[in-house]
């Protein structure tokens, strides 16, 4: 029985051999070579290709709708006429498409061309999808890195753009300089699922914040208050709230939800009811905040009435998988 380690070694050997043959084959075919190929030229893919060009690299691009390549060609990119040519043009192939299904679909005519290359997938997806794609790439002799982009397109190419990577460590190290042209590159580990896991964790934190902030703007706006006038008060308050996060993290790691509690959940359940009643009274739907009251009540009913807010993580950790899936879709 081959062990996971021997299977990994075997995959590395296949990829190394394919890499060795790579340049010779490309030269034989008379193909135009570039440093990096970018597949997918939506808002994000175009920003990635542009940042690579700006850093002085030669870039081959391909997009399903060819018109999106025109502006990049004017800036120095090479447009491939099909995805196979785009993949064959570079050792490093970066994909940024809508969802994972579109990656499989787009690469279908080019799967044989992936051997010996590093395939970096920056498409948003789940940890399970990333692990499956890592196997798919390994079966085709490619080194695989999954990525999570913590930035919007205008940030790409700047240090503020954080890009998370996980998967083949050697590939990350070999292409670190090129990937660094896209933003701050942070490697999280060999498990390809780690980048999307952290990507989704950060994005859900952001959307949770947006839920509360959207509700807060709607509430003050219900009395004709201007959002811009309310803004300084809101940002100061959120700044204060951020300082509570280290205590929350410590409690979650240690399981200490009951020492030095200053805002217990029983008190919060009573106050939260007012948030719902007040919102309805102001003609604002409580739909963005109501689930939190359900969770707090569940915690109180489970014996966490005297516990800190951080203990809510135990409530969602113990939700049965089927219920989780139903709620999520
Ligand atoms: N834009 C953003 O703010 C976020 C920032 C964080 C990361 N996300 C993720 O990046 C992926 C791409 O997002 P995008 O903003 O580039 O998205 P679009 O502008 O809508 O471009 C989508 C590209 O996907 C191509 N595409 C769609 N379906 C197919 C298909 N079946 N076969 C081949 N290509 C396909 C599409 O091609 P076309 O419509 O131009 O022909 C675009 O190239 C995404 O995962 C975000 O979650 C962005």
Describe this structure in words.
- By secondary structure, this protein is α/β, with parallel strands linked by helices.
- It is 55% helix and 11% strand.
- It is built from 15 helices and eight strands.
- It has an eight-stranded mixed sheet with strand order 3-2-1-4-5-6-7-8, with helices on both faces.
- Helix 12 (265-281) packs antiparallel against helix 13.
- The longest helix is centred in the middle third of the chain and has 28 residues, at 194-221.
- It is elongated, with a radius of gyration of 24 Å.
- The model has no long low-confidence stretch (mean pLDDT 92).
- Bound molecules: ligand FVH.
- Ligand FVH is lined by residues 40-45, 63-65, 68, 96-98, 102, 105-106, 123-124, 149, 152-153.
- Residues 40-45, 63-65, 68, 96-98, 102, 105-106, 123-124, 149, 152-153 line the site of ligand FVH.
SSE run: HEHEHEHEHEHEEHHEHHHHHHH
**Terminal residue distance:** 39 Å
Helix percent reads 40-55%
Percent range for β-strand residues: 5-15%
Assembly state of the chains shown: single chain
Catalogue the unreliable spans: none
Biggest beta sheet summary: 8 strands, mixed
- What is the helix tally? 15
β-strand number: 8
Offer a quick outline of the entry.
The protein is of the alpha/beta class and 329 residues long.
